[in-house]
Amino acid sequence: MKHLIRLTTLCLAMGLVVNLIQLSSSPRQGQINTGTGTGATQIRFALPEFQSKSSDPNAVKLTSLFNQVLWDDLDYSGSILLINRTFYPLGKFQAASDIKAEDWKDPRVNAQYIAFGSTDVRSGKMTIEAHLWDLAVASDRERGLSLGSELSEDAVRLAAHRFADHIVDTLFGGKVGIAQTRVAYVAVGSTGNKEVMVMDYDGANAFPLTTFRSTSIIPSWAPDGEKIAFITYRGNKGPNIEILSRLDRRSFPFQALGGTTATPAWSPDGSKIAFSSGVEPGNMEIYVADWNGRNAKRLTVNRKIVDISPTWNPATGRELAFVSDRSGTQQIYIMDADGTNVHPMMNEGGDAENPSWSPDGRYIAFAWQKRDVGRYDIYIHDLASGRNTQLTSNAGDNERPSWAPDGRHFVFASTRSGTSQIYSMLANGEKLRQLTKSGRNEGPAWSTFSGK
Amino acid sequence: MAFRNPHLRVVFLMCLLSVVFIASCKKKVALGPPPPPTAAPPPPAPQPTITLRATPATVERGTAVALQWETTNAGSVRIEPGIGDVSTTGNRSVSPNSSVTYIATATGPGGSASDSARITVNAAAPPPPDAAPPRTPTVDESGIFDKNIKTIYFDYDKSELRPDQLAQLRANADWLKRNANVRFVIQGHCDERGSQEYNLALGDHRANAVKEYLVQQGIAENRMSIISYGEERPVCRETTEGCMQQNRRAEFVLP
After folding, report:
1. Which of A147, A317, A425, B146 is exposed most, by the fewest CB atoms within 10 A?
2. SS3 string of A19-88?
3. Chain B partners of A79 at a C-beta cutoff of 8 Å?
4. What is the ipTM of this complex?
5. How far is the CA of B188 from the CAs of A302, B169, B216, B225, B248, in angstroms?
6. Are A15 and B6 a contacting pair at CB < 8 A?
7. Contact partners, residue A269, CB within 8 Å, separation at least 6
8. In the predicted model, is pLDDT for residue B45 greater than 80?
9. Greatest CA span in chain A, whole angstroms?
């Protein structure tokens, strides 16, 4: 028994040492550590180019697009370290027989996993044979995955996203890949009209959800990844809530409460929408209604105070954060979903707005204009410790953060390039990616996993 | 998110093995019957295949499209979006309102395979733009209204009526009392400072402050409606104080 205890102690100590080594080595120089655990574990991954078995120029071009999209997806996931291709063994790697595990475990490559495969054209369609191997476990090599795709850029991009999500889900367990998710946002037209748009999570395939030639703003995804609620002035009325399907643009009724209506936020179970309404004159308050607008209940009770921008705790569905100017400046408050137990998120002044609650319930991302700064930056508030971490600085105004469903990435609007554009980044400040590049774009919202 | 931690896993496995080893050493090991000879592992199940086709692949809105799928070695098939679990071979008629990519995934003992088929819907009629365009007031009516009714301005981040604006607001009220048949809309506007959402609320409060004053002056409430535009309709786009002051306003318009 003594041996057992001593051994257990030794094991615990060894585990601790490994943990400490990882902890001390994980935050790299200059990296912002939010404590969200992003970047703590990176898997060394080899991704030789998929080869086109067809010599048709279009198939070769689409295979090259597949390679690029797959590489970008895995790189952007933030938890996979793609090993530079110049270190790979020489040769072409398209079938299982082309891969010799020891070549890839050579210290210069030192890959833990490899994905490889080939494309071919059969009866007018592209077939992609894709493989994912754990190089340490020879007997546990996953069988191939066959992805069919039409011979178009859209279809091949989608096939690459599907394989990327398959890899991320397999490596990290569960449904964590975001390559097939989408971002809703608002495009400002040259005449000043604003339309709600939907694009892939990497900025490709943008299309208009609304074509009202009016002002349509502040989109919010239903958890089904199909319906989007937003605020519109269509018909020179409003602002009111409308709900459209991103698949076929069919509309779902929302019974208006009356008065100025703003900032819809879908509850995590999809049954309710929280919003701000001025139905009682001169008094914008937070309400919760069924998602068709019926059975509206008022949650906040103030006079001549602005209460706006509710966001649900997605982990529990039992709390809401919102913005109120009851203290004199705009600050974020948290309350139970029945309106009780209201308390400030922090007491640090300035204007704190646009709260977005992380999927695991632990963090609130927000835009903060600190006292005397005159500029909004994105911060992440850790609810357990009360600590704020700054994610953007000296790069224009940065507003409207919205968490990705993996809880590790978020999307936001920034004026760093001169005009407002949509960007995304990891919650530790890495992997900044500009998603929109032309015109003026604002107010993004990241879909749920069901946006796939 | 549950990250696999290879280092920890190795340590844990080593420990587990050692514990099992030590524990087993303490026992007097009784020799049991030899294990039965292990059968050769079965050959791996063949990987499923699937093909999905949409005919025709390009249609006008409202036209039916046949989705057809065939599989081999598949136990189940699922088609997204919106169709769900289906038989391993079959067809389905769909009439999408806009272009859509269907993905069929076949799963079997040998893994999974998927295929996609895109349906392009031509000339999908966009939802109607502003269904009820505003009634255009006659030049006369609009001209007289605009000549007599002036915009009211506000301080930064405030919705209280400013003393220097009260004379103009009283003049507006007097004209509206004399022209009791005129219905009107009070628009609340803000400068670009503060968030878009907060400004929607601030514009609402400004329009309401004006409405409240007019009702106190005896103007019937049912003659007026309010609309907050927040920072969406600036009259001036520079970031100077003079310009931003022009945007912090309550405007009167005919409905």
Report:
1. B146
2. HHHHHHHCCCCCCCCCCCCCCCCCEEEECCCCEECCCCHHHHHHHHHHHHHHHHHHHHHCCEEECCHHHC
3. 3
4. 0.85
5. 21, 14, 19, 11, 8
6. no
7. A223, A317
8. no
9. 81
User: How far does CA A13 lie from the centroid of its chain?
Assistant: 37
Torsion sign (Cα): A355, A358, A363, A365 = negative
Interchain contact B221–A (C-beta under 8 A)? no
| Residue among B24, B95, B105, B116 with most chain A CBs within 10 A, to mutate | B116
pLDDT: which is higher, B73 or A45: A45
Instruction: Work out the minimum CA distance from A4 to partner chain B, whole angstroms.
Output: 7
In tens, the pLDDT along B187-210 reads: 999 999 999 999 999 999 999 999
pLDDT of residue B141: 66
Nearest to A352 by CA among A360, A373, A340, A228: A373
CATH 2.120.10.30 domain position(s) in chain A: 2-15+177-446
Number of Cβ within a 10 Å radius of residue A136: 12
Q: Which pLDDT score, from 0 to 100, does residue B135 have?
A: 53
Q: Which residues of B touch A171 (CB under 8 A)?
A: 4
List chain A residues with CB under 8 Å of B18. Answer: 7, 11
| pLDDT number for residue A439 | 95
* CB spacing of B7 vs A248 below 8 angstroms: no
pLDDT of the residue at A42: 86
Chain A contact present for B108, CB below 8 A:
no
> pLDDT averaged over consecutive 10-residue blocks of chain A (452 residues)?
40 34 33 45 92 95 98 95 94 89 90 95 92 82 81 94 94 90 96 95 96 96 96 91 94 94 97 96 94 96 90 98 95 97 95 97 97 93 97 96 97 97 96 96 94 54
Superfamily of domain A43-172: TolB, N-terminal domain (3.40.50.10070)
Closest CA to A199 of A265, A150, A154: A154
Distance between start and end Cα atoms, chain A: 53
Residues 360 through 399 of chain A touching chain B, CB cutoff 8 Å: 367, 376, 399
* DSSP one-letter string for A345-406: S----SEEEEEEE-TTSSEEEEEEE-TTT-S-EEEEEETTT--EEE---SSS-EEEEEE-TT
Q: What is the pLDDT of residue A66?
A: 98
CA distance linking residue A47 with residue A31, whole number of Å: 26
> How, if at all, do strands B76-80 and B90-94 pair?
unpaired
Q: What integer pLDDT is reported at residue B96 of this predicted model? A: 80
Please name the residues in contact with B163: beta carbons below 8 A apart, sequence gap of 6 or more: none
Chains A, B: CB contacts within 8 A come to: 221
Task: Please tell me chain A's helix, strand, coil percentages from 3-state DSSP, rounded to the nearest 5.
Answer: 20, 35, 45
Instruction: Give ranges for CATH 3.40.50.10070 in chain A.
Output: 43-172
Find residues 174-213 of chain B whose CB sits inside 8 Å of chain A: 194-198, 200-205, 208-209, 211-212
Q: Sorting pLDDT into bands at 50, 70 and 90, what band is B42?
A: low
Nearest-Å Rg of the Cα atoms of chain B is 36
The answer to whether A334 and A380 have CB atoms below 8 angstroms apart is no
Contacts of B197 in chain A (CB under 8 A): 218, 262-263, 276, 308-309, 323, 353-354
User: Does domain A2-15+177-446 sit in CATH 2.120.10.30?
Assistant: yes
Identify the pLDDT of residue A20: 30
User: Which has the closest alpha carbon to A120: A48, A49, A52?
Assistant: A52
pTM for this model (two decimals):
0.81
d(C-alpha B92, C-alpha A305), whole Å: 55
